[in-house]
Design brief:
The complex is a heterodimer of chains A (about 375) and B (about 325).
Chain A: H1 2-25, H2 35-38, E1 44-46, E2 52-54, H3 59-62, H4 72-75, E3 96-101, E4 108-110, H5 112-119, H6 139-142, H7 157-163, H8 172-185, H9 191-202, H10 205-218, H11 229-235, H12 237-243, H13 252-256, H14 262-265, H15 284-289, H16 314-347
Chain B: H1 5-17, H2 22-34, H3 39-45, E1 54-55, H4 59-83, H5 90-96, H6 100-134, H7 148-161, H8 176-200, H9 202-208, H10 211-246, H11 256-259, E2 261-262, H12 264-270, H13 272-281, H14 283-295
Antiparallel strand pairs in B: 1-2
Helix pairs in contact in B: 1-13, 3-12, 4-5, 4-6, 4-10, 6-8, 8-9, 8-10, 9-10, 12-13, 13-14
Classes of the chains: A mainly alpha (about 375), B mainly alpha (about 325).
Chain lengths: ~375, ~325
Amino acid sequence: MQVRFSKFMLRCLILLVTATTAPSLWAFIDEEGCLLCHKYPKMGRITEDGQRRSYYVMPHVFNKTVHRNVPCRDCHNYIKELPHKEVTTGVTCDTECHSVKNPATGKNFSHKPIVDVYEKSAHGREKIAEGLDADMPYCVTCHTNPLYNPSEEKPPKRITDRCVVCHEEPGFVDSWYDHTSRRVREVKRNSAEIVAMCSACHSDEKLIDRHLAAAEKKGEPLGRKFQNAIESYDKSFHGKVVSYGYNESANCLDCHANYENYYMSVHDIRPSRDPQSSVSAENRYKTCKRCHVYANEDYVAIDPHSTSDPVDNAFRHYAEIIYNWVGYVVITVFLGLALFETIGRRRDGVNWMIRDGSSWRRKSRRGRDRLV
Amino acid sequence: MQLSTEARKTLEKSFRINKTGDAERRDIEDMISQMPDDRVLMYKNVDSNPIGDLPRYGLDIRIQHMLTFVCFLALAFTGLPIHYSDHFWAVPMNDFVGGVEISRIVHRVLGAVFVFSMFYHLYTVVVGTIVKIVKKKFEVQRTVIPLFKDLRDFKDDLLYFAGKRTQRPEMDKFMYKHKIHYFAAAFGNIVMGVSGSAFLFPDLWVMILPVEIASGFQELMRLSHPHEALLALLVIAFWHWYNVHLSPGRFPMQWTFLTGKMMREYQLEEHFLEYLRNLVELPSEREYLRNWLKTTKLRDIGKVGNSAEKLDIA
């Protein structure tokens, strides 16, 4: 009797909790009951190295992400029981979904093909990485859910009215419309956001130093522009107009990804010494030619990441010094002349303003005043 | 006034070019002989109209100047915020000129107008010079072509400002400052035009130039465009505007760029040789001078009108 009472009480408790938190919890379907624990904002721990890790899931936010229809354990497939064991690997993006089918093939959906491409690129790494590999971006470094979660416009009623004749399920048509139309509308980062994304790592001086030191030790030097790629880009004309929000000028991916297969290529960025790179010696002028239509093979002589660093570009370094000195000297000499002339003429009795037909109404220290 | 050798040569040449008759010539010589020997007294005692008395620039030059200065300022205001994009003033200034989507178009259109203005000027100068040569009215001293005299004038002017000379040198229509400024502007315009085109058409410049120098050229142009722009802006703001609008006697504005005329006192002070030509070419100025010589208070102290005996007319 006591046991039955406890089960009854437990069911009541679950019902009570579920009912009171339903509006937020049921924003997406939590068939696996993960939110029983992960709904608590303070759920988390402090890691051995002192970092705070939060395991809180906000249902109302998650419900708006691209993964809202994917059950938790499709990605967190290492969870076999509740409460689950300590998580060691976390989610990898090449995991195969069991609940979402590829509508074209009928097979389980997975990001594996693009992850395989990415892992062979200059940025490739495993989910759990150590040392220099840990500096590389993993999928979620770039694919941050909020960016791909813009507030969608309500689909046009004149279109959805046709669909709902058969697809009566509430919300299905809107979701389907958003999913497909987003691809058509090409929702992606603008140029300034792309530069900011790349800058997050490529302007990190400590990261750069680590990789330069490792490359030197290994005897395989990195590209000449590795250490000042962002700084030089920011100072280029491309970088300056992009910083003002102009999207037609080249951002990092416009040159370092192959535009013939852009979305694949951004995951397959290679170092310039790799012949497959869009900025390799063989391919660079073709990449430039996308915008600079008259570019020929010689166009690669022009440095898109020029700096005044004496090691990188001694000519520009010394030319800039000369330019600066010419500027200082010219302005100083002209100001000096103007001052000298003013003192001389003022001493001779000139006024600042002409009045009654003459500017020479002051008393001159040299005599010879205007007769009034 | 006893004319210097240089002034005498200028006057004689002007007589010859203008085919001045004997009566007119005698009249002019008479007036010059009555002018005070001390030119300082003369330019301090004549009366000037603030908007100008004596012709200096024709309509073409004024239009070119207007085109150049309007374009230059607008180019600076649209271009500098882009180059100095990381400075605190750049973003509000760029917003003020309509944002980069608009300012980049405005900048290029004005750049084209600026280049047009250069060619317009070149055309005017070349054609004008040819016409003068054909009509036998060309005087190299009346142009902006630098001469050794300019170096001498520069030295003498500095000595005057330092109090070591009693008179400013007798300078021509274009003095050393104008020539420095003119050629600096010409050099700057060419640099800005070429470097601007290197920004706009880098691929075409690579096609034109040998590959060995293409990179160096592009780097030089990348440096030149903003450096030259800033230098020009500072020179214009601190030197040109000072000389023509803000310096003593010119403040708050010299109207020459609009009226094409120069104040008499300024012409006598800094362009005395041109003033002599004005006497030959402008009956109205002769009329003014004649009246001034009769009425000036300098007469009362014996500074004018007592030199008739110095006349030396053939």
